[in-house]
Amino acid sequence: MSSEVDDPQAYGLHRVGGRPPLLKYLRGVAQRRDFIVSLAKFRIEAENQRHRLGMLWIVLKPILEAAVFGLVFGTLMRSTRGVPDFIVFLIIGVFVFEFFSSSFGAGSKAITNNQALVQSLSFPRMSLPISVVTQKFMQLVPTIVLLMVFLLALGHKASLNWFLMVPLLILYYMFCLGLAFITARLTVHLPDLSNLLPFASRFLFYTSGIFFSVDVRFADTPLLLKYVEYQPLYAFLSLARELLLDSDPLYDVRTQFWPILVCWSIGLLIVGTIFFWAAEERYGRVD
Amino acid sequence: MVVSTEGTGKRARPDSRLPVVIVDDLHVEYKVYATGKRATEADRGGLLRRAKRTRTVHALKGVSFTAYENDSIGVIGSNGSGKSTLMRAITGLTPSSSGAVYAVSRPSMLGVGAALIKTLSGQRNVILGGLAMGLSKREVEERYDEIVDFAGIRPFIDLPMRTYSSGMTARLKFAIATVRKHEILIVDEALAVGDRKFRKRSEQRIREIRDNAGTVFLVSHSMQSIRDTCNRVIWIEKGELMMDGDPDEVISAYEATR
Ligand SMILES: Nc1ncnc2c1ncn2[C@@H]1O[C@H](COP(=O)(O)OP(=O)(O)O)[C@@H](O)[C@H]1O
Ligand SMILES: [Mg+2]
Fold this sequence. Notes:
The structure holds two protein chains of two kinds.
Chain A (H helix, E strand, L loop, with lengths): L1 H9 L3 E2 L6 H10 L1 H17 L7 H20 L9 H23 L6 H6 L6 H27 L11 H25 L3 H15 L6 H4 L4 H9 L1 H13 L12 H22 L9
Chain B lengths: L1 H6 L11 E15 L13 H6 L1 E15 L3 E5 L6 H9 L6 E6 L4 E2 L12 H11 L4 H15 L14 H12 L6 E5 L7 H16 L3 E5 L3 H7 L2 E6 L2 E6 L1 H10 L2
Parallel strand pairs in B: 3-7, 3-8, 5-6, 6-7
Antiparallel strand pairs in B: 1-2, 1-4, 8-9
Helix pairs in contact in B: 4-5, 4-6, 5-6
């Protein structure tokens, strides 16, 4: 065996299909940034091209969604209890959560939905989940701008805090990216997961205080309050509300959310990166 | 194994040329969840037991050969004989179950098609395909005209790709995929759909790659294409290497079995 292996190396030949070391791998991903961004942009374009209103749908969809939730929870179920400015509260929640749920859903299928591509071209596979999450992020940014316009129209004042939305959204992007790395790999091992993950997403939707105030609703259940305190999505939503609506004391949320989110985002991104890279050779396989 | 390839006598080892790809006793097995019932087996066993049953397809059974620089190797064999599997294993896309493939640089497949988005225009797809092949944005812009002209689709470049005929699509894919310099290029039945003029032009391009110290593998059912472009032919049948050598010899042996 050893003589056979020695021979190729004498001519400077390497075994193909091996996984490069992590840093080299990440450099390879960085070299593909143009591809990653263009793929994201062109997919958005392709998605909206079929529609008469085209790119307008990027902002129309969350507006309609907020309208439905506003109608259901605001008037039918009266979950407005203890929440001043319920409409604004709800819209921020829906818009911000939308990025998580869409990138969570599409990110977990980033490899399995692109089998043909994975099997015919060689590039660092990490490009695919990055591209998907970037695509969803590109769809989030205009809705946040729309949100700000909406707030101004309702008579809220812009404040310097609005600039803090930039680091918050960057953390949010890192968080969802790390998560997508993990779910994209898990779905390759266990395709059934793509049927289960939507339920996880929905569970988070109902427990992250999107259409009710967690403090009011969970006030007599300390365990739930504790859960919510470290639940990163709730922290993202609360901070977004605090930054955008700093006039109201209810939204004057504890600043300890920042370090919690920094830990979650950086931690998840590092864990996800290593976890995804470790199975790099696995992704092209058909079994 | 590697040493013995050189000692078969069929091909004396060309001293001046260096090996670029060494395929060493390569086996590839596909494990597939069998969904259909096999004729011999009845419905016995529960739902779970049946769901777990896998079948193993032994697609390559110990293939060995060495490709040298400037080689242009035709790969022939009947449908399902394992040609595409061998090509994917050479690029590292399909892992081997035993044995190994060694190469000087990562071979690339002419498989840019999967990266393209059919509902977008040809222009968008040239950019996307070029980036997928590993070019930078600037390089794609520089080579844009060359790609469009080689594909010969300039009048249709702003139309969605789904409106293209299969020949036009194949031309565009070939033009995108060969725009980059390839040290080792694999062409798996990509030329079959194009018209005669395009086939001549693409064969010319394959020869250019070969002449620039590149190595080309060409899988084709057109013996004429293979005779025109290859200096060596490998014949695969049922996952085994039947013959490896001079195009005329191998092709006539292959055609004798038809
Ligand atoms: N992705 C796959 N999963 C399972 N079996 C496969 C797969 N690809 C090919 N095979 C099997 O491997 C064998 C060789 O296929 P292939 O390499 O595509 O042949 P060729 O390209 O020579 O027509 C066939 O029996 C085929 O059924
Ligand atoms: Mg084939």
